[in-house]
Amino acid sequence: MRNRRVIQILGDHGISPILISMAGFVAVVVGVHQGVLHVAPGYQGTIDAGGEVLGRREWLLVGVGTVGVVGAASSKRRKRLSAVPVASGGVVLFEAFRTVILAANGLPYPLFRETTYRSSGGPVMFILGAEPFLLVAGGVLLVAAGVGGRRLHRHREDDEMSSAPSTSA
């Protein structure tokens, strides 16, 4: 007879690393569909981002999030694979901070300060959109999934070491 094991989604120690990584993946997917910059509420103006089609950077971030979820699911069996969601979360966090820095330096107008818009002459204020915040949340959740997978194995090892030794009779 084969002994089948079912992977538990909710463990005895709280939320499973798989659920945490899935939440991080959803935050990354929603984040890449948002804008990096917005016009502040109360001001007239729009930012044309160039279309609704996802670029190479967005597809790569979604792929990295997918690798993080697969790594968190695989970390249930192998302790070393819990480094995969940590690494993918680090990549997402790096990309989020890089995007904010490039957007802030590449904009001819300062962020979070009211300026005069060149074409219309009216006052306008640019602020960060939802993308950087969602990417940071997704990256942190992916890192937390990796740390949770690592801690899950530590509890399992403690349980195995505290059991009575078996005797062969």
Structure characterization notes:
The protein has 169 residues and is mainly α. It has a domain at 17-40 and 60-147. The protein has 4 helices and 6 strands. A two-stranded antiparallel sheet has the order 1-2. A two-stranded antiparallel sheet has the order 3-6. A two-stranded antiparallel sheet has the order 4-5. Strand 4 and strand 5 form a beta hairpin. Helix 1 runs antiparallel to helix 4 (131-162), helix 2 runs antiparallel to helix 3 and helix 2 (56-74) runs parallel beside helix 4. The radius of gyration is 22 Å and the shape is elongated. The model is unreliable at 6-10 (pLDDT under 50).
Order of helices and strands: EEHEHHEEEH
Instruction: Tell me the span between the first and last alpha carbons.
Output: 23 Å
Rg computed from alpha carbons, rounded to a whole number of angstroms = 22 Å
The spatial strand order of the largest sheet comes to 1-2
What is the averaged pLDDT score? 78
β-strand amount: 5-15%
Note poorly predicted spans: 6-10
Structural class: mainly alpha
Percent helix, as a range, is 40-55%
Task: Write the topology of this structure.
Layout: E1 10-11, E2 14-15, H1 17-32, E3 37-39, H2 56-74, H3 83-106, E4 115-116, E5 123-124, E6 126-128, H4 131-162
Antiparallel strand pairs: 1-2, 3-6, 4-5
Main features:
169 residues, elongated
Produce a short descriptive summary.
Keywords: Membrane, Transmembrane, Transmembrane helix. The chain crosses the membrane at residues 20-39, 59-75, 82-104, 124-147. The protein is mainly α.
